[in-house]
Write a structure and sequence with these properties.
By secondary structure, this protein is of the alpha+beta class. It has three domains: 2-131, no CATH class; 183-251, SH3 type barrels (Roll), CATH 2.30.30.60; 254-340, 2-Layer Sandwich (Alpha-Beta Plaits), CATH 3.30.70. Helices cover 57% and strands 13% of the residues. A four-stranded antiparallel sheet has the order 1-2-3-4. Strands 5-7-6 form a three-stranded antiparallel sheet, covered by helices on one side. Strand 6 (296-302) and strand 7 form a beta hairpin. Helix 8 packs antiparallel against helix 9 (320-340). The mean pLDDT is 80.
Length: 369
């Protein structure tokens, strides 16, 4: 202390508050390292337990806790410096400290919701349980939006702005804002409708018969949905569109349908009944065909150059590539059945019938060609 007093006297009393500010900053640095080490050890212990909540809390605290230490330390050091200077910025140290603490708490809340959302989905899918990813993401976004709005209102109140008056003004000016941003609001409410009704989720293949929209959903945002088309282009669709169009979700189909017409020659008409019977038998015994669904093999029509029968059945698989492999196998099997019975699959032909009178005239004596 005698040394500090002598130095303070020699420097005109400035050394004392300089040392105090330095000590505060140094303690802040040390405390930040200690907090980080403590949280690291706690996180390691929490990782060994089956409780997911403590893991998320400790991981969410990692950044915000150190930031809180620095906000408090720097603000205290600023108060020390501000007591010796007349700079305007040091007169609002207390308000800045409160705002900093609020922002740190907001950071923690946002990190917690994001981490909990990710861990919840991973834990459920890891156990093989079904989880609605779209709904979970939607609830997470709603919570984070509420955190942002609440934080903004608290900061305004902390800065001395009358929030009640601001909200009253917002009620009066809400009509003008709503008219100016009606498209944005329509997209936001459209996104809310998608999250609540869940007509599709991320990863689903969707298409619309009303618009040229078809592809795999990659992201569902509040304003627009990102769809990867089959030619690998990224299509951004405003969410308001989904409130006014029909949307098909082929990803949720239970089966895929095989509906084909096969024609045989008129010369093979007598063999058609046994061919149909063998085709029915094959489909009823095929492990790739779901016999609990509608299964039809019937003579359909007398075509211009063939006798046509159709098959109508459903595959067990809904995977696009597997379906086509099954369909190929079915078509080849039908071709083999037709061939095995000595018949042929017809192709377009034309038969010309010449009347007997013309043939007699051509073969009459003296008719030279």
């Amino acid at each position: 202390m005698e040394i500090i007093d002598k130095l303070s006297s020699a420097w005109g009393g400035d050394i004392a508050w300089m040392l105090q500010a330095f000590v505060v900053v140094l303690l802040t640095l040390i405390l930040g390292a200690v907090v980080r080490r403590i949280l690291k050890r706690l996180a390691k212990r929490a990782h060994d337990t089956d409780n997911m909540f403590d893991d998320v809390v400790l991981e969410a605290l990692t950044g915000p806790s150190r930031a809180l230490v620095w906000v408090l330390g720097i603000s205290f050091a600023g108060e020390i410096v501000g007591a010796q200077t007349e700079a305007v910025i040091f007169t609002v140290i207390e308000m800045l400290r409160k705002v900093g603490i609020i922002l740190v708490l907001m950071w923690f809340a946002v990190r917690f919701t994001k981490l909990y959302e990710t861990r919840y989905i991973d834990s459920r899918t890891g156990r093989g349980e079904e989880v609605d990813v779209t709904l979970v993401h939607g609830m997470g976004k709603l919570l984070r939006a509420a955190v942002f709005v609440t934080t903004g209102l608290i900061i305004l109140q902390t800065m001395g702005i009358n929030v009640a008056g601001l909200l009253a003004f917002g009620g009066v000016g809400g009509i003008a804002v709503g008219l100016a941003a009606r498209d944005l609001l329509a997209n936001v409410f459209g996104g809310l409708t998608v999250y609540m009704d869940r007509p599709f989720a991320v990863g689903d293949w969707i298409r619309s018969p009303d618009r040229e929209i078809e592809g795999t959903v990659e992201e569902i945002g509040w304003r627009r949905t990102a769809i990867r088309t089959f030619d690998k282009r990224l299509l951004y669709v405003p969410n308001a569109v989904f409130t006014s169009i029909s949307v098909e979700n082929p990803s949720r189909m239970s089966h895929r349908r095989i509906k084909e017409t096969i024609g045989v020659r008129y010369d093979d008409m007598a063999k058609v009944p046994v061919i149909l019977e063998d085709v029915r038998k094959y489909l009823n015994e095929s492990p790739d065909i779901d016999q609990s669904q509608t299964l039809m093999v019937n003579l359909n029509e007398f075509g211009e150059s063939s006798v046509n029968f159709f098959i109508y059945t459903f595959t067990r698989t809904t995977v696009w590539t597997e379906f086509h492999a099954v369909k190929e196998q079915v078509m080849l099997a039908i071709s083999e059945i037709v061939e095995r019975h000595g018949a042929e699959i017809a192709f377009p032909t034309t038969t010309v019938h010449v009347p007997d009178t013309i043939r007699l005239a051509e073969n009459a004596p003296g008719n030279v060609r």
